[in-house]
């Protein structure tokens, strides 16, 4: 493409810089959501264990709020993936081919595909896959910490009371609260690890990290 049209090659260079800038912007938004979730979680943990008189269900409220942040971040991840996918298409098919034309392009119709996406931008990743990605990357660990803290709060932190009684909230018996929490976390594990077809555009590949620096000389 660069050989056939210098003007188009220049336009693509500017388009690529624009896509990279948008990738960075959405990456920052993802990080901001995670930062707020971690900050809020730290505040809740500190308050929950500052006194034995503080109710344990503040940790359950923390789980709900962090789950809301998970939903926000999953939505932002879907937008982020749109621009990352475009950047990867350009990298794989334009820059990689310009550096080593003998390997050809990853997709022979990449220009048409990119054109269609510019004409009618579409989300490439489902909500389900976005949730699974953010859970694997960040939120399953955060929610596991809150779960562990809640279990500790209703057991070892209140040794003189029966933990089933301690887990109760107002008129809701402890066994019902524990059942709801258990079902919620089983659902989280299902979303995180259930096998599915991947639609997000991949970047990194496994291999020897020193291979790319090896030379024949």
TrEMBL record:
Keywords: Membrane, Plasmid, Transmembrane, Transmembrane helix. Pfam families: DUF2270. InterPro entries: UCP01500. This is DUF2270 domain-containing protein. The lineage of its organism: Archaea, Methanobacteriati, Methanobacteriota, Stenosarchaea group, Halobacteria. The chain crosses the membrane at residues 56-74, 138-158, 170-194.
